[in-house]
Every structure is written in C-alpha cells, then in structure tokens.
Write a structure and sequence with these properties.
Among the domains are: about 1-180, Orthogonal Bundle (Cytochrome Bc1 Complex, Chain D, domain 2), CATH 1.10.760; about 250-280, no CATH class. It is globular, with a radius of gyration of 22 Å. It has helices at about 1-15, 20-30, 50-60, 130-135, 145-150, 160-165, 170-180, 190-195, 205-215, 245, 270-280, 290, 325-330; strands at about 240, 260-265, 265-270, 300. It has a two-stranded antiparallel ribbon. A two-stranded antiparallel sheet has the order 2-3. It has about 350 residues and is mainly alpha-helical.
Length: about 350
C-alpha cells in the first residue's frame, strides 16, 4: 500500500510549493478514482471545483484558524504521517490541552458515513466545526469568531468570492474544507492491482497467505469487508472491542499491592490508592453512547478503514498500540462475541 500512499503524498507534499495546476490535478483525481475505490457519494449541494479545493487546502493548513494562531487541522492530520499524528497516542490542542482520542486519518474520509470515532457528524461539510470550537483542540469561542477572523485576513480577500461568489460564511468554510478533504483518496495499491486488476504477482506469496487468513480463520473481514469490485475495508459500524471498558476499569479497594522496582533489586509494594494518587486522571470516554445515549452503544467506536494502515500508527481509539502486531495480538485474545 505504500505505492498508493506515494500518490497521495505527491499531492500533499506539494502544498508547500504548489503550482497553478495542483488543485486541478486534485480535482482530476476524484473524477477518475484510483483502482479499488467505489464511486464517491453524490455531491449535489457541494460539487467540487478547483477554486473550492484550493481554498479548502489553504484553510486546512492555516494556524490562524485557532484561537491563538498556533494550531491547524493539518497539525493533527499530518500528510507525512498518513494524515494522522504518529508521535502521540492522542494529540494535543492549543496550549498543550489533551485530546481524548487518537487522530483518525483523513484519507478516504469521503466514504465515511458517520464521522469522528463516535459518529457524531454526518458530512464532511459539518465535521470541521467541532474541532474549531472544541476547548481542547482549536478553542475558538464560536464559529462567528472564526468567520470574523477570516474576514479580517487580507490574503483571503477574493478567495471565497472566487470559490462561491460571496464572502466567508460558516457554510462556505465547511464546503471548502470538505472539497479539499475529498481529494484525499488512496487506492491502486499492490493489493488493488492483485485483487481487482488481475495482476497475480502484485502481492507476494506471504501477503496472499495473509489475505487468506484475513478472510478466513482470523475473521478480520467481518468488520473490514472486501467486495468484488472495490474495498473500503470498513463496515462503517460501531463496535465495543474491549478497549474502552478496560481503560476505565478501577482496581478494587482491596486489590493486592503490586511490587514496583524503584532501584536495581529494590522493590516496594504499591497499592491501588497510591496508584490512583500518582496516575493521570482519565477523562471518561463512553464512545458512541455519548451520541446516541443507547446503552448498547457503550464503548463502541467506528471501525476504521485499513487502507494505508501501516502509516497510521498508533492504533485503536486511544492510540494504545504502537505496532500492528499488538493489534493482531489483542484481537486474537478477544471474545469475538462482544463485537
């Protein structure tokens, strides 16, 4: 999948030195989608144009959209890191404020029906508003403040007019960012050429055995399906994989102390009260339940796509696993009935 990633990166890396045809190429890319991807959902209310894509790209990487001019969308969705953030389990917002969940990739976001890991937004047009005003992300007091700031920036003069025929508004901001994000499509990987393109040698024998396991005994395809003509590698559903529940488990008051080595050969017993005192406070995270209030959705999170998964570490909604082998080990030990 790295070769497919290179196609996306060639677009993203050009952000810093894009020529006049950059956004035209991005538009062409979604008009002729890479092998292995389904048709994009209809966009009657926001048809893509080169001008919208150019404006959305600029907004995506503009730190001035945060309350203190230090954070942009592209700082948690870094092109070099698969449009995620690899350095931390969960990203930080303005002034180092902690964000509860791992940054999901923006790649192929156009295919996601329920956005964010809890599915609280239904479209790419409305999705950007949440991080723009979230206290622990970009921390703006309101969307009105964001629009007023954009209107005050001289370098945006004429860009909204060119894209929409009018000045900055909340709806146009969302449409521009959505137009740019829809160009982040990744396909035509060795897997696609093997599965959908008929190239028998596109995958190694070991990789083909892995796919047989993926669709067979390991049952990975249950949540990450592969169709006959294309594959998004997600069922777009929400599942409790045991991570959320165990993250919030509290040791019973009568739990036995755990020996902790404080120096070579020197151990001291540490009980639950002391561990609670020195541990960072965990903010509750109930997953999809926070949106639906349905008890069946407790600790459920959206199934991520596996496209370019080698680039999007760390894994799971809280970023607890640094390597794919850790994820595989977790699922090999999981009671599959809970899914």
């Amino acid at each position: 999948m790295r070769r497919a990633w290179l196609c996306v990166w060639c677009l993203a890396a050009s952000v810093l030195h894009a020529g006049e045809d950059f956004d035209a190429r991005a538009l062409h890319r979604i008009e002729r989608l890479p092998l292995g991807l389904p048709p994009l959902p209809a966009l009657a209310d926001n048809p893509p144009t080169r001008e919208k894509i150019a404006l959305g790209r600029k907004l995506f990487f503009d730190r001035r959209l945060s309350v203190n001019g230090t954070m942009s969308c592209g700082m948690c969705h870094v092109p070099e890191q698969g449009f995620t953030s690899n350095e931390l389990e969960t990203p930080v917002g303005v002034e180092g404020r902690t964000v509860r969940r791992n940054s999901p990739t923006s790649l192929n976001g156009a295919y996601v029906a329920k956005l964010f890991l809890d599915g609280r937004e239904n479209s790419l047009e409305t999705q950007p508003m949440s991080p723009l005003v979230a206290h622990n992300e970009m921390a703006n007091p309101s969307m009105g403040d964001v629009i007023a700031r954009i209107r005050s920036l001289e370098d945006y003069n004429g860009e909204f007019e060119a894209a929409f025929g009018g000045g900055p508004t909340e709806d146009r901001l969302g449409q521009a960012l959505a137009s740019w994000q829809r160009t982040m499509v990744a396909g035509n990987s060795p897997f696609d050429r093997w599965k959908f393109g008929g190239e028998k040698n596109a995958l190694t024998a070991e990789q083909q055995r892995g796919f047989a396991l993926f669709t067979g005994k390991a049952r990975c395809f249950t949540c990450h399906p592969v169709g006959e003509q294309f594959a998004t590698f997600t069922d777009d559903a929400f599942h409790d994989t045991g991570i959320g529940f165990h993250r919030q488990e509290v040791a019973p008051a009568d739990a036995s102390p755990v020996p902790v080595e404080v120096a070579p050969g020197v151990f001291i017993p540490v009980g639950p009260d002391y561990m609670k005192m020195i541990s960072e406070k965990q903010e509750p995270d109930l997953g999809r339940f926070e949106v639906t209030q349905n008890p069946r959705d407790m600790w459920g999170y959206r199934t991520p796509s596996l496209r370019n998964v080698a680039l999007t570490a760390p894994y799971m909604h809280d970023g607890r696993f640094a390597a794919l082998r850790d994820v595989v080990r977790h699922y090999s030990e999981l009671d599959m009935e809970r899914l």
